[in-house]
# Entry
Amino acid sequence: MHLAMKKVSMILLMSLTSLLATAQIRISTSGIEMILNAVPGEELRIMYFGNRLSDTDFLNISAAGVPDHNAYPPYGFNCPSEAALAVTHSDGNMSTVLTVMSVDQTEESNAQVTRIRLKDTIYPFYVTVCYRAYKDVDMIETWTEIENLEKKHVTLTRFDSGYLPVRVGNVWVSHLYGTWANEGRLLQEPLERGMNVIKNKDGVRNSHTDHAEVMFSLDGKPQENAGRVIGAAFCYSGNYELRIDTRDTDYHQFFAGINPDNSAYILESKEVFKTPELALTYSDEGLSGASRNFHRWGRKYKLAHGDKMRKILLNSWEGVYFNINEPGMDQMMADISYMGGELFVMDDGWFGGKYPRLTDNCALGDWKVDKNKLPDGISWLVDRADSHGISFGIWIEPEMTNTVSELYEKHPDWVIKAPGRDALTGRGGTQLVLDMANPEVQDYVFSIVDDLMTENPEIDYIKWDANMSIINHGSQYLPSDRQSHMYIEYHRGFASVCDRIREKYPDLTIQACASGGGRANWGILPWFDEFWISDNTDALQRIHMQWGTSYFFPAIAMASHISAVPNHTVFRTTSLKYRIDVAMSGRLGMEIQPRNMTEDERELCRRAISEYKEIRPVVQFGDIYRLVSPYDGHNMASMMYVSEEKSEAVFYWWKLETFYDDHLPRVKMAGLDPERHYRIRELNRIDNKPLPYEGLSFSGRFLMENGLEIPLKHMVDYHKQDDWSSRILYLVAD
Ligand code: GLA
# Structure
């Protein structure tokens, strides 16, 4: 080719490349990024999600091979596959075609927000696909804003928050399943052909069964501390659906959004429907690496008071159930104060007027003190707590009522029920869900907290429970042609009440409980400080549940309590040391009648609380490294937390069952600084003799390459021996 011509074609090629590059948008955190292709007038395409690219890789990425999928695929035109959005337009047309109109990138103090406005090619129907990329945590949130500027309403029959293609290979998905008293169980499976649907339709709570979070291990069987992982958490308190579709293409297709089942949404002209956020992360440090990203993002940007250390508490439930009275509460407060705790929470059973709450079949909604049980009211309890040097907290279940209650007698129209049918009831044979879509109900639910706090501003903590699902489809507030909005409006009403509470009571600690772990999700946590992992407090089963839950949620949010034996759910008897060592891996508390404990047991708890105070910053703000999974059949489990500066670490080791002639693996630690030396100290020691390495130092390198031998049993006096064995080691850099 002639030299001049060659030059011209080079220039042409260069300007073509830069044209292409300018349509390529980078959505980046400091470590990860998503690349989109947003050519005006064309579909928005997704090209890449992973570690940050070099500038050269960014320019050449499309030549390397990219998914080049529609970043938010709508239904109805060239649509043999799954869609993220399905719309019936005002004239009945069920097809939607969205092309790029504009791209807008703005800076927030800690994040960059990218908004890509799409328009239907023939209708004034718009979708803005939004991304928030944090600067200091590796998390990208995505959501959409669906706007109808047609003259009449349109109907949304699917409205996902986000879509992500994942390259086919040996991809495994890790996700959580369960039920009441067995929440957060880990399931890991290879992605095969077909559709994998993870969903919830409870209506009120959404994490007893499947969880709204997943991790994809891209390099074969999931590993905790190696391999590439994509993590996704759908941040919503209501019904959801995550779909992974694997068909005849090179990509698994992952969709996440509000569950559209029985929830068709009529979008009025000029109305905007904002979908909840889907949080996406990527790590090349295995599943634990992705967990660390979720935990850091959660503590910094999502969880209420994610930067404040949590108090050690005693909750009255498993200690006294409904048998609440003044001397009993005072005694429990004195006991937890003696053991070094900082907060007492009075659970269910304190309220009711005409129908005193003696058991679970009445009085929800009648939030006034039962004067027979507590003649001097809440203020007396608050004063007593103060004189014991601790804070006071209280249980409520604000979204619910019972057919046997003054509230229901006054407002039968406030409950969720199908028109013309008697309502099916829940707990106690009488429980009903209030219709949070109704603004009067919202005001009332707000007033429950507001009245308590106005009368007793010293209340430090609220346990907010929710013990029933929506099992009657019907809002008595919404008109008959908007009944399909019931689930969505319930959660909008709930969100609006939570916003009002947080605006007026920003410092209050609030626990999300829902028959145990029914509300462990990132949709709730911006208003809540923590959640109750499960009504099952059996230490052995908790190891499994807490392991799974830790995939997506940090220890600071995971309420983990020492309870009595035989356990009230599974009737297993574990040693107190074992129960303590499990509870100390989360936000430590107690759920027991201290009066029934021996002096030795109280002493062990007192020591454990004092030692927990030493490690609390590492547990609650440290980085998690899971080491040996209780699901892997090694008859043991082990994990650790390491402080951000790698100057301290806490190592946990739990044997799962005792078999004679058992040979457990020696656990290699992780996350330490290989160059530093760490002095070892065992916490909660019950053995007559210290471990051989007590007080000695080892390099991080040695501990990560070899670990330390852990004796299989405790060397205690013969009559004190049992079949439980666990260790907590506190490592401090010299
Ligand atoms: C639910 C909660 C428990 C306890 C009881 C009280 O089951 O999960 O922790 O508060 O309600 O009735």
